Amino acid sequence: MKGVIARHAKTAPLVAALAILGPAAAFADTVPLPPPRPPEVTQPEPEPDKTGSPAAVPLPPPRPPELTQPEPQPDKPGDAAALPEEERACRDRLVQLGAQFTPLPAIDGPGTCGAPHPLQLKTLSSTVTVSGQPVVTCRLAEALATWSRDGLATAPPDKPIASVAVGTSYECRGRNHDAGAQLSEHAFANGVDIAGFTLKDGRGIPVGSDREPALQQALREAACKVFATVLGPGSPGHGEHWHFDMRQRRNDYRICQ
Length: 257
Ligand SMILES: [Zn+2]
Prior knowledge:
This protein is 24% helix and 18% strand. The protein is an alpha+beta fold. The strands form three sheets. Strands 5, 7, 8, 9, 10, 11 and 12 form a seven-stranded mixed β-sheet that branches. The structure holds zinc ion. The site of zinc ion has 4 residues, from strand 8.
């Protein structure tokens, strides 16, 4: 009997009939009732579509809100998760040096020009800013910040350096602006031209000028310790700026002219 009731208890009329049975209703406490219907089952039936025929297939319930949010964009600039480990480590070191920068989207072309993870450098340290909005690789930015720390520290205490003026940074071109020549490191955001610097008192020191020659010489010598290439006054085409780059050569051969 109990088994029979249990089998039929799914139907509401039978449950109601049991209630009328009086003493037999004691069964009702022990009769397993079906679980409450899940909410989605109580949702209204899908409306017939516009053609008038009822939708044959029930529609799935709406997706919960968290699933309808946009997917993360792995290529978004600054998305640390999308960066190679080496690049992430470089940016960490750059932050340690006190430099400030903005990650930029990849530069891709024209031709073989470009850089996968360029940065726009804003400051070289907590005390030295950089003008010219240079677009550089992290390795070059790190070298500039290191030069700032080690080299600019060679400035006499009464002539602290406040900012460094970058002329050209990223530019898709051949060496020495020769279209037929091998691409310059500028074409890979891996080279910068330094036009000069400004002391804290506001005095500008253009590279190659007759102002503060000892300081200019000290800075140039300090640069040779961190950059792979240092060219400046005395080197053809570099009378009024320093060219620094991080060109990788066999055996880490460096050029300091
Ligand atoms: Zn250059």
